[in-house]
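Q: Convert this sequence to structure tokens.
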Amino acid sequence: MHPDLVSIGFLHIKTYGACVAAGFLLCWILVEKLTGRKDLSNLIVALVASGVAGGRAAYVIENWHTQFAAHPWQILRIDQGGLVFYGGLILACLVYFLWCRRTKTNPAELGDALAAVVPLGHALGRVGCFFYGCCYGRICKTGSLGIAFPRFSPAWYEQVDARLIMPDAPHSLPVLPTQLVEAAALLVLFAFVISLYIALYKRRSGLVAHGLVVSAYLCGYAILRFPLEYLRGDPRAEIGPFSIAQTISIGVFLTGAAFALCAFKKVEKLKS
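A:
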């Protein structure tokens, strides 16, 4: 755990924020390279802002009573972590479709390029989660697989409140590093979707199903996120037998499947 990347005098840069910023910047560069477009700055900035706002709003709603009801000013402290990815994804998608409608852009075609790079930026964000200590896993009985976070980390606070450790404990009990597990899975997903994008769009001629990369990303992330929720040890809000993230994962998977059906119905021939 290393929450502060730089802390010199008045200069404080959080590792989590730096990882998220690096992820956004890297995605921006890759999208421009994949599409050859240099006119996407307004869109990228809008997606970044809506992604952060949506992610923070979802986190605040999920943790209002336990974290923010007594300290509402903490809502603005996004530098300390606290973004729900699905919340950011949903709001960013709404902003994206509005932008495409205003600019008369094919949302499926540009969406494929965006979907091809999002897992890489998301993976960097999860590395940031690890350095901050949030999004940790369940207590690990096999010590060699677990990470003991230091005193005053989110896992330490939760275990003290649950009376699993004493308030003077120097570190938490070992927990599964689910942040790194998800980051690794996202890198695999990134390798798959960007390879699919290159196969579809980087040929001189042939047929392409716009939206197929979006479908692969949505279905792929839903598939990896759903079981990962069973490994998470941080407080999880639930809807029936599933966590909120699992419930959304089901909807995301069905949306991805619908995208695939639409993509195959509208196969187009690429220009030579």
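The chain is about 60% helix and 10% strand.
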